[in-house]
Design goal:
The chain is mainly beta and about 280 residues long. It has helices spanning about 215-225, 240-245, 250-260; strands at about 5-15, 20-25, 30-35, 45-55, 60, 75-80, 85-90, 95-100, 110-120, 125-130, 150-155, 160-165, 170-175, 185-195, 200-205, 230, 265-270, 270-275. The strands form 4 sheets. The protein has a 5-stranded antiparallel beta sheet, with no helix packed on it. The N and C termini lie far apart (about 60 Å).
Length: about 280
């Protein structure tokens, strides 16, 4: 079956004056217009394409890569607004519609919004919505503590950054655990730090437990080399100073120091740390 809104691997079955016809092997064909036909191809060859509806509402294939696919949440810019809704730029010729009913507030041309792409079952069209909560649920979680997850940053709250977890759930990264610049729309990795009794999810942007030791030690070691073999930081340094310079918590920094010291990679000085002589 040819899936709209997703990448399909299809077979080239025939060449025509308007382009290549591709098949899923189950009796469904779709046109790849001439402008997207690769320079070299053979009948019977398989090719990866994205499928959606063209201006005449007919299934069409393209080798262009969209910024968002069905089921995903991404930050997109409004290209235009008319009587039907807002049309988002998503990397394809035909813009992605956000109907007025799917807008939390009236969208404005040129502005950026995190939206969710889905297939409208009534019309069969690909559309988007920025009423994000209706597509997310923490009722039945398919993640557990310590899991590595994919995140999309969606908004800033009083406590921290709200994120989408694996395109399904909502989580929170607390401000005091953010050691790098993040922005709305960022797609970043993270870890499940804690799942609360009400199924709220606390997220860490760093590896957890023992897995943080090696990356932290490596980063401290590389930073030392970049700074002539000395850093005016130690286990008594102010946590804010450590965060500003190393983009990690003081706890993580101290663990990294411990690893390097045990391996005799550094020496501890009164006013900082230094690379050990070979």
């Amino acid at each position: 079956m040819i899936e709209l809104g997703r990448t399909n691997k299809l077979e080239i079955v025939r060449d025509t004056s308007v382009g290549l016809f591709l098949s899923d092997g189950k009796g469904h064909d779709v046109l790849l217009p001439n402008k997207y036909v690769p320079k070299d191809y053979e009948i019977g060859q398989h090719i990866e394409v994205f499928c959606y509806l063209d201006y005449d509402e007919r299934p069409i294939a393209t080798t262009l890569e969209p910024y968002i696919m069905v089921g995903e949440f991404r930050l997109l810019q409004v290209a235009e607004v008319n009587e039907f809704g807002a049309f988002m730029e998503w990397g394809l010729e035909k813009h992605l519609l956000v109907p007025f009913r799917e807008q939390r507030d009236k969208m404005k041309q040129g502005q950026w919004y995190v939206v969710h792409c889905y297939l409208d079952q009534r019309t069969g069209r690909l559309v988007a919505s920025n009423k994000l909560d209706k597509f997310l649920s923490n009722d039945n979680l398919n993640v557990k503590e310590w899991d590595e997850v994919d995140l999309v940053v969606i908004r800033q709250t009083d406590l921290g950054w709200e994120v989408i977890v694996n395109e399904k759930h909502k989580g929170l990264v607390y401000f005091n655990e953010v050691f790098k610049t993040i922005n709305i729309g960022d797609v970043i990795p993270g870890c499940i730090k804690k799942i609360r009794s009400d199924n709220k999810i606390d997220i860490s942007l760093q590896p957890l437990g023992s897995r943080v030791l090696e990356p932290a030690a490596k980063k401290i070691y590389e930073t030392l080399k970049e700074n002539g073999g000395f850093l005016a930081l130690h286990d008594k340094s102010d946590p804010e100073e450590i965060r500003d310079i190393m983009q990690m918590s003081k706890k993580t920094f101290k663990k990294g120091l411990g690893t390097l010291y045990k391996e005799r990679k550094i020496t501890l000085e009164n006013d900082g740390i230094a690379l050990a002589e070979d």
